[in-house]
Amino acid sequence: MYEKEEKQLKTLYDNIQVPLDSLDEAIFTGFQKAKTEEKRQFRGKKWVISVAAAAIFLVGFFTSIRISPAFADYISVIPGMEKIVNLIRTDKGRMLAIENDYYEKIGVSQEKSGLKFTIDGVIADESQLVLFYTITSKDKQKLLKTEKVRLESLEGKSIELGGISMGSPLNSEKGATVHSDMFEFYFQSPLQAKKLQLKVWVKGEKVKEEFTVNFELKKDIQLKKSFDINQTITMEGQKITFLNADIYPLRAAIHVKMDPNNSKRILSFADLRLVDENGETWNKINNGIIANLISPDEAVIYLQSNYFREPKELYLVFNKIQAVDKDEAFVVVDTVKRQILKQPKGNLLRNLRVEGNQLIFELQTKKEFNAFLFTRINDGNGKEISSNYGFTEGNDKGITKLGVSIPNPKNLTNPISLELSAYPTWIKGNEKIKVK
User: Fold this and answer.
1) Are 245 and 255 in contact (CB under 8 A)?
2) Per the database record, which ranges form the DUF4179 domain (predicted)?
3) Of 380, 379, 389, 392, which Cα lies nearest the Cα of 356?
4) Which helix (H) or strand (E) element contains residue 97?
């Protein structure tokens, strides 16, 4: 019935080019979920909990659709899929997973105190599980959020989590009765359990409940595709070796090592993407974990997945990398005097203030830059400080508000050192590396 339309839409989708300059980024790290102050609600942000110490996260502040709207609209007419597509339509790899029938409908729920929590479905591979859920309420809620979440095996098999993306809360001035979002679970070792249990704490305006929902994965988990690369490039004197690529249904993992003799600290591969022989492009993850730092000179970078394509040729392409001189890789502050003692040249960070357990900066740039800047944090004695969460909040005047939570900032031994994981300075080139 729809064969002709599907073919036309698929052709359009296959040839769509994903814009790179419009990516809105916000990166942050942490060990535990933030204890959000009741009087302070940050709208439009997505919090990510890190179990691993050196994970880098990208939070979506989406302003445009990066795949074919026509294809997304076509998928959304399938019963029950519209809300799923609305959540993932900015990720080409996840849309390909749905197109290739890799999404698994679950449809189990639990109801308490006028709230109903439903697991709509999942997409799972060895490294990650994306769980789509819907919360419905008998009464209108202006605020509806998940405060904690836990994923466990019902088969006695351990699940080694490396991080959890919590999704965004419902904030509605008029009130609403339905909220849909997703949890993303990142694994440190391949997922083996098929019978799982989700525990989640849901809070509304006047109600708070814990839900426990069991579900089973019945689809076979597709195994990763691995490619050896072992190629070294030099960009503005900085040597970088691309070791290998593992491509999963939900993301592609690119393992890189920097030459320890480089003069600059490599921070972020701003426009790294996979490109096939026809020019079809898969860009960086735009919502979730974008990289794991193994050390200052080694990392795994995550891209959108081309798993459900079988190109004859596949390349890694990039033109710029965020980098700073190694002696400028830390921002140093005094939380008592509220002064920035050291930062990269240009003095783009200004107006440091301490509000409760938060250090708040202003980053002043000519163009909007929503990347969260910091990873590890140390006190004046060199002791690492656990950071609960971070956020960015930009405007159209090139001023970005950055916040990072640390315990009792006024009582810590100063000065405080914040290691950079991103910064708006770049080295540039024109690189193309063969993967396949």
Assistant:
1) yes
2) 45-136
3) 389
4) helix 92-99
Do 166 and 183 contact (CB within 8 A), yes or no? yes
Q: Which two tokens stand for residue 288?
A: 């979730």
Residue that is written with structure tokens 């942000």 in the block? 45
The structure tokens 């040249």 sit at 345
The residue written with tokens 């996840």 in the block is 94
Q: What does the alpha-carbon distance between residue 155 and residue 74 come to, in Å, rounded to a whole number?
A: 38
Q: Are 52 and 162 in contact (CB under 8 A)?
A: yes
CA distances from 289 to 60, 87, 359 (A): 11, 16, 23
* Phi, psi dihedral angles at 119 (to 5 degrees): -85, 110
Nearest CA among 41, 34, 36 for reference residue 143 = 41
Residue with tokens 């974008």: 290
E-state strands within 188-263: 195-203, 208-216, 225-235, 238-247, 252-258
- Of the candidates 138, 148, 210, 150, the one whose C-alpha atom is nearest the C-alpha of residue 176 is 138
Could you give the 3-state DSSP secondary structure of residue 351? strand
Report the alpha-carbon distance of residue 92 to residue 100 in Å, rounded.
12
Q: Which long-range contacts (CB under 8 A, 24 or more apart) does 76-83 make?
A: 80/105, 80/120, 83/120, 83/132, 83/134, 83/180
Per residue of the chain (436 residues), give pLDDT as tens.
Answer: 334 334 433 333 333 333 333 333 332 223 223 322 222 223 334 444 444 445 555 443 333 334 456 555 656 566 677 888 888 888 999 999 998 999 999 999 999 999 999 999 999 999 999 999 999 999 999 989 898 899 999 998 889 988 888 878 888 888 899 999 999 999 999 999 999 999 999 998 889 999 999 999 999 999 999 999 999 999 999 999 999 999 999 999 999 999 999 999 999 998 999 999 999 999 988 777 888 888 889 999 999 999 999 999 999 999 999 999 999 999 999 999 999 999 999 999 999 999 888 899 999 988 878 788 888 899 999 999 887 667 777 766 778 888 888 888 878 899 999 999 899 999 999 999 999 9
Distance CA 422, CA 430 (A): 21
Task: Give strand pairing partners of 265.
Answer: 324
3-state helix, strand, coil in the chain (%, to 5): 10, 50, 40
Beta carbons within 10 angstroms of residue 98's beta carbon: 20
Longest dimension (CA), the chain: 70
Rounded Cα–Cα distance for residues 307 and 1 (Å):
28
